[in-house]
Design goal:
There is one protein chain. Helices cover 39% and strands 23% of the residues. With 222 residues, the protein is of the alpha/beta class. A five-stranded parallel sheet has the order 2-1-3-4-5, sandwiched between helices. Strands 6-7-8-9 form a four-stranded antiparallel sheet, covered by helices on one side. The chain has a three-stranded antiparallel sheet with strand order 10-12-11. The protein is globular, with a radius of gyration of 18 Å.
Length: 222
């Protein structure tokens, strides 16, 4: 299980979420304001931050922006009553890993937390991710190849990170859509293909991300 920070100003909801997560085996810290939450998230390593948007003082959207800027690898699950499509998309584009609207079902919250923690060991985040000649700077969101550094837009960064963590394995479009964009899109959508095309221009050639016909993509180390 993981260490989770819950940033929520409604004491009833904060206590509920914390209790549910602790009962599920997680270590849980809480913060009641945006400033407290941001300070806590930057002071120690959390496997997941559960973040409300309507917070006193520093709003949740500002916390998300500043946290992702400082720690691009940080996973954030937004939990908010502001759950229309525009808000959800804005949060995901700003760097949230997932979004769950209020009111929520406890079973769904637990399932989403499990999904976001899957494959991550507590405290496992490091500065660099390497596969073949490619080095990905997780803090500065840069890709480094043969000494050449290129900054990546957020979605390209998440896409490359996912592919590199599963280097040599085929990643389906559905898998990439769920992990990188955090929403269930129509599988016929070309959003993954467009992002891959852009990412390839930042690497050492299109062969680095190989297309697997009718399935998805694979990061090639050699």
């Amino acid at each position: 299980m993981g260490r989770v920070l819950v940033v929520e100003d409604d004491d009833r909801i904060a206590r509920l979420v914390a209790r549910v997560l602790r009962d599920d085996g997680h270590a849980v810290d809480t913060a009641a304001t945006g400033s407290e939450g941001l300070q806590a998230a930057l002071a120690r390593d959390f496997d997941l931050v559960v973040l409300d948007l309507m917070l006193p003082g520093l709003g949740g959207d500002q916390v998300l922006e500043q946290l992702v800027e400082a720690r691009p690898e940080q996973r954030v699950l937004v939990l908010s009553a502001l759950s229309d499509v525009g808000v959800r998309v804005a949060c995901l584009e700003a760097g949230a890993a997932d979004f769950l609207g209020k009111p929520f079902a406890v079973a769904e919250l637990i399932a989403r937390v499990h999904t976001r923690l899957r494959g991550q060991a507590p405290g496992a985040a490091t500065r660099w991710l390497e596969a073949g000649p490619v080095r990905l700077d997780l803090r500065l969101r840069r890709v480094v190849i043969a000494g050449r550094q290129t900054e990546l837009p957020f979605r390209e960064f998440l896409l490359l990170q996912h592919l590199m963590r599963r280097a040599g394995q085929v990643c389906s479009r559905a898998e990439l859509l769920a992990d990188v964009w955090g929403l269930t899109f129509d599988p016929r959508s070309n959003v993954v293909d467009v992002c891959v095309r852009r990412l390839r221009t930042k690497l050492d050639g299109p062969q680095r991300v190989e297309a697997v016909r009718h399935v998805g993509y694979r990061f090639v180390e050699d």
